[in-house]
């Protein structure tokens, strides 16, 4: 059993006796029946319609989705909480492309310069903050996994000067780290920010497998812009640096290691043993390329349900879901519209019906509640990262985030995996709500898949706000308890494909009702409790980001 499994079940046992003695306010239980399967279905039917053309941010189809959810919130009596007294928050998106003609080269210590064939030996990431990147003859260093974690007694940069240099990083998972630490330190944004903090002018990323193809960016890389056109959220450049980011092939890595103190086999063996293997590389690296941009305005939608307590109404529990999907793309089985019915029209539908439950409460909860439908999740959590960093309410007033992303409504919901709840006191609210709805709680069956950092709740976590994301468990009515196998087969045929459609899709709307009820009950408890949620003592994310 993993450490996460042990923690989840230990905490569940600790609070089990409390849960048996406590309950959820009757006022909340009384409104649960207001969730109607037909309402969820109607939302998904509209949001996944071909007219919306896959809800790509910055397109008329996405705007139709914005208008729809805004209208729904308004009709429910949810007050606007966006910018300028409205329901929306502007998120300016920049799609960056590498212009043709990029040149890359390697200069060994002896002999002639060696050009690197673009697309074969190396590719560059478009730079959203600097239209022209020029790195001429920069020294090279190898920095292992690109991790600097002295608190964990591991630092690839210890004793290594990276200032003014191009850093070579292996994109492999360090096995000596626990799941949480590995998720954070392997995140590309963390790797790039670490390199920038050490003064690097560029980062060369090496794939974990020799047969891996170099990444291509025919649709560009998307970032979010802030005041003055400054890049404020990006997965392709480091904060505070206009550095080069490129991917190189294993053959190119061998080229760069020629004449080094340790060869690639030796350094990888040392890394696998749990020790750093950083070293200076003998040659120099050059790169020259330009990026072009397409900027577009997109929007988060933000609604508010005012709290009833004069002292607590200035604090907020957030229910979030991403409104966007992939737009129109390569045809699959004759269909080119990526409708995103499950991903994430079902999540948006859930938040809308959660809002409806809150509006039926008498009295309203003590804290205020924010309903936040974000843009750009499929582009790298951009809309949620923008909102969490620049919220439309005071940042210190955000208490917790409950995110809903692709709840996967294809079978009865009998158990749940509360991703992230094991990091904070949020597990208490999950346990109580699940008990009321007769849902079992299970540990994450796939901790190595980094699911906790791959959806919008993580944007709140890095701003110090405890957050969670409820996913389906493995329990089935026939006792086989193999729902994950069914889901994996479904995902192979449907996920991020035009087949994720309302028409012809598979839906269990009763499961959707359970998701709505569960997330609402979790949020309601947080909105009633005058205490702030707390990070667990010694938790990695709490120690790194907690307020």
Walk me through the structure.
- The chain has helices at residues 3-21, 26-31, 37-47, 60-76, 179-186, 188-197, 250-257, 264-272, 341-360, 382-389, 426-436, 457-461, 483-494, 509-528, 540-545, and strands at 79-80, 88-98, 103-107, 114-116, 122-124, 132-142, 148-149, 154-155, 166-170, 202-206, 221-225, 231-233, 244-248, 279-305, 316-322, 327-332, 335-338, 368-374, 398-403, 415-419, 440-441, 467-472.
- By secondary structure, the protein is an alpha/beta fold.
- The protein has 2 domains: 3-77 and 306-545, Aminopeptidase (3-Layer(aba) Sandwich); 96-292, Glucose Oxidase, domain 1, CATH 3.50.30.
- The protein has an 18-stranded mixed β-sheet that branches.
- It starts with a helix and ends with a helix.
- The model is unreliable at 1-21 (pLDDT under 50).
Defining traits:
globular; Glucose Oxidase, domain 1; disordered N terminus; 2 domains; 18-stranded mixed sheet; 547 residues; alpha/beta; two-stranded antiparallel ribbon; Aminopeptidase
State the fourth-level CATH superfamily of the largest domain: Zn peptidases
| Helical amount | 25-40%
CATH topology of the largest domain: Aminopeptidase
Tally of alpha and pi helices: 15
Structural class: alpha/beta
Count structural domains: 2
Low-confidence stretches: 1-21
Largest sheet: 18 strands, mixed
Q: β content, as a range?
A: 15-25%
- Cα separation of the termini: 31 Å
User: How many E strands?
Assistant: 22
